[in-house]
Amino acid sequence: MSRRAIVTAGGLMLILAGAGGWAGVQALLRVGSFQGYAPEQPLAYSHKLHVGEYKMECLYCHFGAEKSRHAGIPPLNVCMNCHREIKKQSRDLAKLKEAYAQGRPVRWIKIHNLPDFVYFSHRQHVGPGATGGLVCQDCHGPVETMERVRQFAPLNMGWCLDCHKQKGITEYSDRSGDEVLAAGAEKADAPPRPAGGMDCSKCHY
Fold first, then answer.
1. Does residue 69 contact residue 120 with C-beta atoms inside 8 Å?
2. Which range is most confident: 114-118, 126-130, 182-186?
3. Spatial distance between the Cα atoms of 53 and 129, rounded to a whole number of angstroms
4. CA-based R_g, the chain, Å
5. pTM for the structure as a whole
6. In a domain, 143, yes or no
7. Model confidence pLDDT, tens digit, residues 49-92
């Protein structure tokens, strides 16, 4: 093999190794990130129809978001509040009514999953009285346009901290989130004090 061929082959190998290394780094950066995850659900519930067309409020179904750590999945009786009266039939609506009649929950597939070592409370973030004062779309994206819900944001630590900085929630506090919320509730004219927006131990403990 000529020297020129050796140099060319060596250069090609370096380019391939560099490309492989870059691809590896990009893959590692996405470890634990499920942005875009949109599993097929047992019932084809359309947020585009219910939230977008019928203008249903997110908190009508996910009423736990303002009061607890988890937003929660609505029980079937919430669905039946409307669907007892709606006469239009479909295969999925028949499945819904059958599950309700049998007292059997629909086994929805959870989409937004945070690691076990992360603490997140919807109560601290959602609604006018919460520290964050966020609306659902801030984290979940334009659900009113989604036929099938997908994970809109990366939900990684950098993304959360960027939001804390943008919202000005950067001070530290030695009080728990519930204590901060209770303190804010005592003063109706003052929002709760930020609960350590840049303090590692508030989300990781």
1. yes
2. 114-118
3. 28
4. 24
5. 0.72
6. yes
7. 999 999 999 999 999 999 899 999 999 999 999 999 887 789 99
| High-pLDDT (> 70) share of the chain, % | 72
Nearest to residue 40, comparing CAs of 160, 162, 149?
149
Contact indicator for 162, 153 with CB cutoff of 8 Å: no
Tokens describing residue 7: 């140099």
Cα torsion 172, 175, 179, 184 to 10°: value is: -30
- What is the total count of domains within the chain? 2
SS (H, E, C) 97-163: HHHHHHCCCCCCCCCCCCCCCCCCCHHHHECCCCCCCECHHHHHCCHHHCCCCCCCCCCCHHHHHHH
Structure-block tokens of residue 177: 């989130």
Which domain, by its residues, includes 118? 47-71+113-205
25 shares a domain with 53: no
Phi, psi of 31 (to 5 degrees): -60, 130
Placement of tokens 């508030």 in the chain: 202
CA separation for the pair 42, 164 (Å, rounded):
35
| Domain assignment present for 85 | no
Structure tokens at 199: 């303090």
